[in-house]
Protein 1
Amino acid sequence: MSQSPYIFDATDATFQQLVIENSFHKPVLVDFWAEWCAPCKALMPVLAKITEEYQGELLLAKVNCDVEQGVVMQLGIRSLPTVVLFRDGQPVDGFAGAQPETAIRAMLEPHVQAPPAPAGDPLEQAEALFAAAEFAAAEKALVALLSEDNENARALILYARCLAERGELGEAETVLNAVKGDEHKQALAGARAQLTFLRQANDLPDPAELKSRLAQDPADDEAAYQLAIQQLARQQYEAALDGLLRLFSRNRGYNEGQPHKTLLQVFDLLGNDHPLVTTYRRKLYQAIY
């Protein structure tokens, strides 16, 4: 049982009260899981983190499908993990299978009141919102900030990244071109890398197709590289870094050294203090030497 007041277990006996009745007051996210389901266990901490950030505006109910067969049959749950969002006594949205954090937040956004913005400096607030994948809220805060100071380099770079996240790649590039000075050179390089990955991904095969190709031929370097780009466009950074490093170790000369160049672009994108950068810089160094 979670120690959080916003996260709880629901059973056949308590589902009506804890999920249906609660959903008339706050949206309730229901996580259908089982002990044997590895993707379920990987998804749980992501759902818990998101729920906690909403500070009571969202509740999370966990249903163990090995035990609570009544609810499972009633709702027709056929695969795990399955997550269903209830409002006003009815299921209104959801998904089946493990999903990236950004996709889960996007699903919740139309249904759940945005979490309170962190206190402090307005730019720091916007950066925290962006880090939490609350891109619309971050963009709104940045528009207000830039209306008072339209030469704030940090704000411009972050604003461009918000634009890129909603597909306005041309406008994002225009904003980046307006950034003056070299003080935020690494952040600027990271934002430009983000635009590059998003543009490249638009012209590549679907990730499912690329994974199928790799399942048939693990040495398909083109599929491995293209899958990493698709993962980067979806902010699946650890999976992308792992794939790029394996490709570099196997064929460092692929496409004129593109795996190495892309790894360095991701390091710029995430920043030197990011734990993934620390880990994969060390792994890259070991692979080189």
Protein 2
Amino acid sequence: MTKQPMSKNASDKKLRIVFMGTPEFAAVTLRALIDAGHEIILAVTQPDRKGNRNKMILSPVKELALEHGIEILQPQRLRKEPEVAEQIAATEPDMIVVAAFGQIIPKNIIDIPKYGCINVHGSLLPALRGAAPMQAAILEGLKETGITIMRMDEGLDTGDMISKVCCDIFEKDILEVSDILAHAGAKLLVETLPSIADGTAVYEKQDESLSTYAKMISKSDGMTDFNESAEMVERKIRAYIDWPTCYSYLDGAMVKFYKAEAVTDVHPEDRVGAICEISKDYYAIKCSEGMLKVYEQQLAGKKRMSAADFMRGRKLEIGERFRAEEEK
């Protein structure tokens, strides 16, 4: 699938849009819609959350909406708050645009706008449907992923595809991948909207036989006892560098990993999880296949630091083992 051509007749048509999104990935799309001159009549985003010292943290979408004087809704659960659909319907939107909102959009909302509910999805559908497609792409070792602009239906990312763009993500972490895809998706959406508005968009059904699923991430997904290949652990570090981070335990203390290199060197005499090599710039941990050279980490209660600084404060010895918390 290629990008949809921009209609000459509809390229200047400005739409009344209800925007639904939460993180910076979504805020990039919202900003592009504003810059393109579309009328954002309502921003729907996740509720504020408590940060350190009970300080309330606003979503990037809410911050941008406040900056531009856009009305805001923050439902706890869309499916349990039917009045939200009523409030959205009352704005008479031409379209609802969804980008990383964080909740399932029910049918009574999907069916509201005349041009449909359009989603900016962070994968090349039908691959990697679901909650965390960008992290899944890193975990699978993909060199490329992309954005799909799709018309939502009741299924989980099963709607018809409208346009796609492919992006290089080779050896990048989730922060880099999210930034690349956010800007690519925002640009593609703005370019695709005119064809939707003038009826020239081509809607392509997804091939169910090619579908894969990117599961929701939990904190426990970041834990490693190194009973995986070094390559897989290194991917986890890049995929989870923002949250929940890839972590393990040394003498019962949590260590979070931020920068590492997977190598195929084998130390057959060492146990999985054991420190098998120490250098001035890194220490290496034996994995089920190969070993992981760690260059940057964070010990519980300390700041993120280089391996060199870490080893100055905590003397490491060959044979010491990282393990799951329950094994301490």
Protein 3
Amino acid sequence: MVVVLGSSGSIGLNTLEICKKFNIKVEALVVGNSIELLNRQIEEFKPKIVAVAKKEDAARVKHKRVYVGEEGILQLLEECEAKIVVNALVGFAGLKPTLKTLELGKRLALANKESLVVAGKFIDSSQITPIDSEHFALWYLINKRPINRLYITASGGAFRDWKIEDIKEATFADALKHPNWSMGNKITIDSASMVNKLFELLEARWLFGTTDIEAYIERTSMIHGLVEFKDGSTVAHLSRANMQLPIAYAIKGEVDKPILEPLNLLELQSLEFDEIKEERYPIWQIKEHLLDNPDMGVVLNAANEEAIKRFESGEFGFFKMNDLILEAYKKFDGTSASSLDELFAIDAKVREFVVK
């Protein structure tokens, strides 16, 4: 049995496909605003409890037990018997459900990047199985062998081939035109700015206990991660870009039936790696500082979420969004939280600064 937080997004939908494939019962579903989709999922999977973001939407849900908002999600987790929770919620909203899941002793299949980015030092990562394709690839490859360095890959986002001067005038709609696949708005913007990859580096730091992590652009999105071992060898994980593989392992532990169509090596395009350059991705200048000062994750996340909102409203262009994030990051340099209460207070202060 599983609980799926964020069942209307791409991770959630793929999780439900895996549940069908392996005949796994879905005990509870959580969505934000996609009520019609939730109703279809209720009809198919017959969950015991569901939750939605807004009180006014609850009456539209075709279920007898509908909980609302953050408190509703936490209550849902407490009442569920399932030992596995898939957290595919987007943004800071996913943190409290992560903490509650681990507090309850449940296994967490984590796709919510922000949980580890913001509060990694308060989270027992040994109870987490990563769903991100990059972290799954590293987990899959390491297999308890001594590592020297970790590598993750990036698509490069919407502006990887744009002229630098044109990026300055790019709109929110331009930033949503990902070259490789379709994702939700926030993660697509994060991909264009490379904030997404900073998040993933910090996640890897908490998950694998090392700061020796690098990221490169790999345009085909066929290579998801590489591990350089102490013996000098480097191993890569290649597969088609399909989230059902990491989801299946996160839920099942081991997988003994086909999930993906195998690669035809003769059909592979030329595989090349490109450096992530600050002139195209200004946010990349804080990479080393962030890995050395992981408490700054809460600052980066809060500034990023609020700056994206202002960018979406048309208030300023893409590079100005990056400038605002960097301004906040420098303003709160040295930030450190000794408790979760302090963490939430820092988050609020950073957001207040960015929306000023």
